[in-house]
Amino acid sequence: MSILSAESSGELEPERVALAGLLRACEPPSAALVRYVQGHGPEAAWQAVLARRAPRAVLSATAARVDGVDPAVLVARAEADLVAAARVGARLIGPPDDQWPGAAVSAFAGAMARGVRGAGPPLALYVRGRPLTGLPDRAVTVVGSRASSPYGTRVAGEMAYELARAGSVVVSGAAFGIDTAAHRSALQVVRSAPDEPRSVTVAVLACGIDRAYPEANRDLLDLIARHGSVVSEYPPGTVPARHRFLVRNRLIAAFGAATVVVEAGRRSGTLSTAAAAEQLGRMVMAVPGPVTSAMSVGCHLLLADRFAQLVTGADDVLTALGRTGRTGRLESRAVPGPHDGAVPGEDPRHPTDGLEPTNARVYDAFPTRGSTSVHELVVESGLPAATVMGALAVLQLHGLADQDGPQWRRVRPDRGTPPRQIG
Amino acid sequence: MSILSAESSGELEPERVALAGLLRACEPPSAALVRYVQGHGPEAAWQAVLARRAPRAVLSATAARVDGVDPAVLVARAEADLVAAARVGARLIGPPDDQWPGAAVSAFAGAMARGVRGAGPPLALYVRGRPLTGLPDRAVTVVGSRASSPYGTRVAGEMAYELARAGSVVVSGAAFGIDTAAHRSALQVVRSAPDEPRSVTVAVLACGIDRAYPEANRDLLDLIARHGSVVSEYPPGTVPARHRFLVRNRLIAAFGAATVVVEAGRRSGTLSTAAAAEQLGRMVMAVPGPVTSAMSVGCHLLLADRFAQLVTGADDVLTALGRTGRTGRLESRAVPGPHDGAVPGEDPRHPTDGLEPTNARVYDAFPTRGSTSVHELVVESGLPAATVMGALAVLQLHGLADQDGPQWRRVRPDRGTPPRQIG
């Protein structure tokens, strides 16, 4: 099968008609039908389905839409689907196509082998826009609540923008809220370079490729198709229905190397995307939020159960995926031991920052005003005299202590801010 | 040794003078000194330290404050410490006392056996207020940043109030910010019952029991002593110094069955309390917050490294500790599978909530307006006719579908709110 789309060839290829017909014959996912097509090729499988001579599982999967219908009508509908797709600039691709996201889809094989229900791969995909490249290795799925909070919208936007800027494809579902923020922010990256050839974002629909759902995102979907891709495994004209969002979510999860849940209510459908990602062996990540926000409850559930890795931004995502060159927000992972000389203050500019604990202890043993003797420092710090004298030398070197004959005084560097509470 | 305090006995018990002297002879923690006192009793140990005839490790630990000082002066200082403590209503307790928090302190033995540095138990404790009871089993340590945000202050306050109301003792460090919010909110519980005998909160100081640090919390510390306890292992008059906060933190961690970090900056000293809790075998918990808040970075570090368990409130803490009778905020732990019929909407009152996925799929296959046939539902849903008819019966039972001869129509229950976007 060539890459030529129905639109550019001007004539419908038989294999593509077969795939279109098979897509319409069966509500996805159907592992049985996909396996059958893999074994026999689309045309032979299509003919067998039309003639009702396929294996029992295939006949059962296609019964509702094929039994009793004139095969000529089914073929005509398949051809009409390709024409409807071409009318919105979409082409139908299947596994033999170069553009087929085989690396992303291969995850379903593993999930099926582990007996995961509903893990059937897509049979074929309608694609509008740029080729599907970089899935899943260079892609990150960013999803979340439709009823997102300003906080979630901001975090999703910043994350998607940074991910796209770092070369990742941002995958999402074009819904209101987090999805929209993710797509829009990824598109910001190409705003200054409209001829940039790479795809920055992919939207996977739960309805026909010729539909805009939600309708208010029609312009956004057009933009996505210009600088990325819009994808659907449903025949043109298919309306979005509840179960289709769940089925679609498995593709969203499969397309990214990781699925990041930015905000999700307690019962959010986004959690099903996280579950699908986990079943497909993808990394699941979640952004925490205020515990006072209902929109973060789903994220906190994922994190509390250690189902998801906590991330605070794009850097954390890329670091977890092992592909960052930049400094992660959470890069300093070391939790100080209780006696490792951790600095209790939040102010990084405290004079004793970076000092050995013993030296800091001697510094703290000084009276706030006036001078003191080595003996008094020994008593106050509880450290041996030799240790105190060694510490004084270090403090003097750092300009933190000053000697005047046998007396010592502490030097408090001018920090331009009033002294803070200790501890 | 009796429980009689120096204050009430009117005469200083020799054993208590010995403990006071030993506390002053050595900056805690000193595992060597504690072991020596455990082996020989406080009086014998004190005499040996004064006579400089103790084991090398003990002599070394006490050298800075004992060597070359007249023993009579040291004894006089110890007696003065007990008098100074009594003046603020504090007593000195040691391991033989009934009030000694042996169960909490026993954790140090395990940590020392595992070679944890600085895990020395306290030798004795100055206590103001009520007896130390319920540590650690009925106690929860609530700590966090001094420079807390309004969010952190609110969460700490709600958590401490609910913990105290549920019968827990709230342990903290009396610092500004989270600590203050925790103590104050725990005290709210006894506001209506000032004669309530139980202790609601314990403050562990990094300075002498006769000092108020921070000074602005003097009244708060008095209130804590009235309805709980103020504790210090430092001799009266000891000033708070940097290293003492770190040393004190190990006691705060030891006193609670869990340590909850509500807010912490990246370099917060609170992280040392979390580290101490972990080393002592206590549960470590952290409250997430906005990723845009510097005050939640420390909590997110603990959670990202899976060093801490995520909690969103008192219920989560009590649930994790296995002692709740109430409903936890995160009680619904189940993450729905991608095809388990998860409901994508956040609105818990969607008409198909609680329906089997197949039934919901048929419900969604209805046209938005008007009626439809079973055949059309079969085609739209992609389900076998028998399944569709079974689903229709269920939907009719739930009042979600209505039959008019061969035609069916969907019934949308009046929800008082406009229909939501699907998915």
TrEMBL record, chains A, B:
GO biological process: DNA-mediated transformation
Gene3D superfamilies: 3.40.50.450
Cross-referenced Pfam families: DNA_processg_A, WHD_DprA
Family matches, as InterPro entries: DprA (IPR003488), DprA_WH (IPR041614), DrpA_SLOG (IPR057666)
Region (Disordered) residue spans: 328-357
Residues in DprA winged helix domain copies: 347-403
Domain Smf/DprA SLOG: 119-321
Domain of life of the organism encoding this protein: Bacteria
Family: Belongs to the DprA/Smf family.
Entry protein name: DNA protecting protein DprA
Organism name: Nakamurella multipartita (strain ATCC 700099 / DSM 44233 / CIP 104796 / JCM 9543 / NBRC 105858 / Y-104) (Microsphaera multipartita)
Phylogenetic classification of the source organism: Bacteria, Bacillati, Actinomycetota, Actinomycetes, Nakamurellales
